[in-house]
Automatic annotation (TrEMBL):
Protein name as catalogued: Fibronectin type 3 and ankyrin repeat domains protein 1
Presence of keyword Iron-sulfur: no
Taxonomic lineage from the root: Eukaryota, Metazoa, Cnidaria, Anthozoa, Hexacorallia
Pfam families attached to this UniProt entry: Ank, Ank_2
Keyword annotations: ANK repeat
Origin species: Nematostella vectensis
ANK repeats: 140-172, 206-238, 240-273
InterPro entries (UniProt xref): Ankyrin_rpt (IPR002110), Ankyrin_rpt-contain_sf (IPR036770), Ig-like_fold (IPR013783)
Amino acid sequence: MAMFPSITIGKVTYNSIEVSWENDKKTLHHIQISKARSSSPSPGAPALDPLTNYQGYGNSHVFKSLEPNTEYLCRSRFVDGSQQTLGHGAARWSQPNHVFTAKEPPSGAELHKAVARQDLDQVRKILSENNSVVEVMDKFGLTPLMVAAQKGYIDVMETLLEFGADPNYFNSSGKTCMMISCYSGQEEPAKLLRERGVEWGSRDKNGLTSVHWAADGGHDDLLLWMLKDGAQVDLEDTYNGWTPLMRVACLSGNDEVAEVLIAKGADVNRTDKSRKDRAYGGLHERPL
């Protein structure tokens, strides 16, 4: 039998190292991985700061929770059956293998900063290195695509969509990119989302649609395009049973928005859950 188990370094990530070795399943192995230090505690001794150990009869192990971009030393030894402890009396250690963990991948916060700067090169770089952050929300509950839609950053939106951002993704309150775009009055982002297959009928947790949100935002020109594009004018929310026109009558009093809704068929006599009609005066009698 060899003096030491012969180990092979497998997959290395920013926080893990895979180690494998040959084993007849009868011999107890002890594998140790430790962070290298800048100086050795004594001449000729490996600079080992014990971190993690594996002892068993297997032939592979993944050491996890390591630090990124850090040098580690991996060494091995056999353990006699009568000395199955990690510390004293076991066989000598092998010379250590030197392994560097990878650099930590870019975070969602870095992606949001790149989106805010409209830095397309950085957005591409981050998502090429770590695509898992494409839907990470900021402190306001917005994904990068939602932020880009809110701000009207078409080029950024197209880049995020290219890297797999979901145009139908909804946050914890049920809001979608389309709703956020419409509330912000961003027509071009809304058109792009429609091109990517987003439907008008999605609702948030209160049952509000994109038409409700465009009306709440006071965007009459955007509403006119939405309704011409097939959005329904009289869908009710689930909380009060209010249509977009009812919300305008009760919340904003925006005449221009009300005129567009009425011109496109909003029912001025519609009643809500309390059986009140929330009528918007005589606006339905005014010509556009």
